Amino acid sequence: MKPNMREGHEGTGPGAITPDGCAVELYARLRVRDEPEIIAAAVPPGAHILELGCGTGRVTHALLERGFTVTAVDESAQMLERVRGARTICGPIEELDLDETFDVVMLASFLVHTGDPEVRRALLRACARHVAKDGQVLIQREGEDWHTNVPRERVDPAGYTVRIVSSEPVGQGVNAVHAEYVFPDAIWTQTFRSRPLTKEEFEAALAEEGLAVDEYLTEDRVWVRVVREEAARTQTP
Ligand SMILES: C[S@@+](CC[C@H](N)C(=O)[O-])C[C@H]1O[C@@H](n2cnc3c(N)ncnc32)[C@H](O)[C@@H]1O
After folding, report:
1. Full-model pTM
2. Which residue, 204, 201, 190, 233, is CA-closest to 12?
3. In a mutational test of the pocket of ligand 1, which residue from 9, 20, 83, 125 has the highest number of ligand atoms less than 8 Å from its CB?
């Protein structure tokens, strides 16, 4: 049965397709890249991380190996079935209300660029709701030229190609992005909605939910450490 797809999202490929258009079987073959190093350098050792939109555990497993504890959340049960060694929670991030807080909340995979501003607010609110008073939110943003530098592709050393085929405006500041993941024996295609956000727009979206940038962690400003606004104010310069 086809799951309820998120608006503007589509996916083709073998096996289950998630509401945001990921082909679970092929997603499980994607290699982890530099994400664990960036995260480990940014947060306290051994922290308890709430990972929002964990997928098959591509990053989760590497974090567990580094001694972090992870609570992994995803709305796709088929994705979560592949996560090992972490507590898993199935459901939309927007509705997550665990009545507990975490040292680190992670919203990666560019989810903050979701097309619908109401959904974005709900995602950031979920981050704010679950981060400890002195905790951190790690966010992965899109790079600045991601919607203009198209088409582009990357051949992964593991033997697959990731191709961003197009990014076309669909109105109200939102683009429809078409991506292809080409494996020797199978292809997954995904169309998703993305709202480019300047640094200023991103920071304004954080402020709406009482969050503020602590530090841009990478030169391209893709990875960001965010804290509660009150924690940002009390920090010594
Ligand atoms: C592109 S995958 C990334 C998975 C993982 N973060 C990684 O880097 O390997 C996006 C995942 O987020 C999940 N997802 C997207 N939006 C979601 C939402 N609003 N609530 C819960 N899960 C969501 C999808 O089901 C999918 O598994």
Report:
1. 0.97
2. 190
3. 20
